[in-house]
Design brief:
Structural class: alpha+beta
Low-confidence stretches: 1-53
CATH class of the largest domain: Alpha Beta
Order of helices and strands: HHHEEHEEEEEHEEE
Strand content: 25-35%
Number of strands: 10
Shape: globular
Number of domains: 2
CATH superfamily of the largest domain: CAP
Number of helices: 5
Largest sheet: 8 strands, antiparallel
CATH architecture of the largest domain: 3-Layer(aba) Sandwich
Distance between the termini: 58 Å
Length: 194
Amino acid sequence: MKNIFILFFFLFSLSACNDNTSSGNNSDTTKNSSSTNSLTNTPGSGIMIPPDTDTATALNSIGDLVLGMKTSPIMRMFGRPDSVSKTGLWPGDGLMHQDWLYRSRGISLNMAMEEGQKDMFISSITVKKPCTLKTQRGIGIGSVYAEVMMAYEKEIDQSLSKKNVIVIGSIYDGIIVSFENDKASNIFIGAAAE
């Protein structure tokens, strides 16, 4: 009797699983299959994510620069930086950090690596004038306050945002947009706090 009950329960569970997909409600299946066909970002992988509006993706890139991108693709895109800071250990994350500055492009990259490693990856991105790169939601230097509010409406941290600063996501992982005269003057992407 116990075996019949277990068999009945198993068959019932199996048929319940099949009913969802056979009823035509396969929106979850569609979402999953499309997400497996897209690239994902792995810190330090150098993989660039194609544009979409996914929250995680929208909060970790600007132009073709993506948090976690390795040195090689950066060098192919922009060449050698105008200046490079000394490498130093950050106690907050235990990584070795170095700043790469592309002055004529208005781009500053904080690069990081584990101690003893050679290949660095982007830890944070800061852009200012004359940078022309845009986030995946079309925000860049010169975007007005209202545009930023509309583009990231659901992700804005209201408790930390003010008229001259919008925090998107969080200060631990997100975008911080600073404004002068109602226009974006500085965009920071990454962890501003540990």
